[in-house]
Amino acid sequence: MSAILSVKNVKKTRKSQRCDWCGERIKSGEPSVTMAAIWEGDFSSVRFHPECKTAWSATDWKEYEEWDCFDQHRGKTMQDAEAEE
Ligand SMILES: [Zn+2]
User: Fold this and answer.
1) pLDDT tens-place string over residues 19-67
2) Ligand 1 center from residue 1 Cα (angstroms)
3) How far apart are CA 74 and CA 63, in angstroms?
4) What angle is formed at CA 65 by the lines to CA 48 and CA 39, rounded to 5 degrees?
5) DSSP structure string for 30-56
6) Which of 2, 11, 35, 82 is 20 to 30 A from 58 via CA?
7) Cα(77) to centroid of ligand 1, in Å?
8) What pLDDT is recorded for position 19?
9) Reported pTM
10) Does residue 32 or residue 82 have the better pLDDT?
């Protein structure tokens, strides 16, 4: 069971870091989205590209139970990525 605690749109990311969805770099000064959540009972927070956050939101979570950090495609939902393979 997962619960989203907060979602924050960051206009300018301070420090360059990897997007937890696609693994590509979010450069400093670029927008990103941070999310704090309880995943499987553990608190954690992730940072996404804005388009990766959109993809995360649009993923059919009834179909997919979980996802791995850095394993998705930038801006693509789980079902989109699977349809392409
Ligand atoms: Zn990304």
Assistant:
1) 999 999 999 999 999 999 887 789 989 999 999 999 999 999 899 988 8
2) 24
3) 19
4) 60
5) S-EEEEEEEETTEEEEEEE-HHHHHHH
6) 11
7) 11
8) 98
9) 0.89
10) 32
Note the pLDDT of residue 1.
55
Q: How far is the CA of 51 from the centre of ligand 1 (A)?
A: 7
Q: Is 26 helix (H, G, I), strand (E, B) or coil?
A: strand
Calculate how far, in angstroms, residue 66's C-alpha sits from the geometric centre of ligand 1: 17
Token pair of 22, please?
A: 């696609």
Domains of the chain: which residue ranges? 1-58
Contact assessment for residue 48 and residue 59, using Cβ atoms and an 8 Å cutoff: no
Q: How far is CA 35 from the centre of its chain?
A: 8
Instruction: Name the one residue in this structure whose structure tokens are 């590509």.
Output: 24
